[in-house]
Write a structure and sequence with these properties.
alpha+beta; 30% helix; 4-stranded antiparallel beta sheet; 10-stranded mixed beta sheet
């Protein structure tokens, strides 16, 4: 692959990074490590604790997500089964298991830092999402900065302003406290304020940190990269979010300050650090879903239900 990840940057790209949603051109869809055959091999050696295989369905008018296991299934069969519908596979922390992807990730963020004045990511991670035709990601937001890179397939993405009424500070604090990023309240009228993108292979979206968004696949399987990054400012904001959530949920106090500098910040930073060391911190985080099905490509449904949660 060319030693640059992006197609030529424009002055507008540089000026509006993290100020408004942007669509940039990239070359990652050409990389050998991100082709279907290479991803099939990666799936076969992926550790169970770092992937989520999810089947979605409607039950009683409610959308149900069930966790599955793909142990022993050939990687190409996994991808073919996802292509049949109603599933997605999230490979978390890909940079830890693919040296090629780790190199690409480093190159991408080095290039962003060189192009965008003042941008510096202290840490960054990479995941790969393989999702069925017509799959949908509902309205949510992420705490770190996030980029969405399209490798194959097409999708539509709605990006909303990171401000009221589309996003409230308490929602961010609850996400930090519980680890559950789908706790936002969506109103269809929000769409009037959304920036809508049609995303194709070789395109990447960036948006202001914490911007709510939702995604619909077109009628084709999609392969995408999600990369997350933390800057110094966002780490400071995260400390305050966690401290404010602890104050609300544990002490019944409604904090009004969210400053990331000054005396109140340092007090809350100390509270957040103490909370993280406490035995109660882990009890607030959502547990992993129980494993309820086993991938079975040769069955009509593509899976078999397990007798009980595993």
């Amino acid at each position: 692959m060319n030693q640059t990840v992006f197609q030529p940057w424009t002055a507008e790209d540089r000026a509006h990074w993290n100020e408004q949603p942007l669509r940039l051109q990239h070359r990652l869809h050409e990389h050998p490590a991100l082709q279907v055959a290479a991803l099939a091999r990666l799936i076969e050696r992926y550790p169970r604790q770092d992937y989520a295989l999810v089947h979605t369905s409607q039950q009683g008018g409610q959308r149900v997500w069930r966790e599955g296991d793909l142990t022993g299934v050939a990687g190409d069969k996994v991808i073919q089964t996802i292509q049949r519908g109603s599933m997605w596979l999230n490979l978390r922390g890909v940079h830890r298991y693919s040296p090629e992807c780790a190199q690409v990730l480093q190159l991408a963020y080095s290039e962003i830092s060189a192009q965008v004045n003042g941008f510096s990511a202290r840490s960054f991670t990479m995941g790969i999402l393989i999702s069925s035709p017509n799959a949908r990601v509902h309205y949510h937001c992420d705490l770190p900065g996030q980029l969405l890179w399209q490798i194959s397939g097409k999708k539509r993405v709605w990006v909303y302003p990171p401000q009221a009424p589309y996003l409230l500070p308490e929602w961010l604090e609850d996400i930090a406290y519980t680890g559950f990023e789908f706790s936002l309240v969506y109103d269809p009228t929000f769409d009037r304020a959304a920036t809508v993108f049609e995303l194709e292979p070789g395109q990447m979206l960036s948006w202001p940190v914490n911007s709510p968004h939702r995604v619909d696949n077109e009628d084709c399987m999609n392969i995408s990269i999600t990369s997350e990054h933390w800057t110094d400012d966002n780490r400071r904001a995260q400390r305050v979010r966690m401290a404010n959530a602890v104050l609300r949920h544990r002490l019944g106090w409604q904090p009004r300050q969210r400053a990331v500098t000054g005396p109140s910040f340092w007090v809350k930073s100390a509270l957040q650090a103490a909370w993280q060391r406490s035995p109660w911190a882990g009890q607030t985080q959502r547990a992993f879903r129980p494993v309820e099905f086993k991938l079975a490509p040769d069955t009509p449904e593509g899976f078999v239900n397990l007798a009980g949660p595993h």
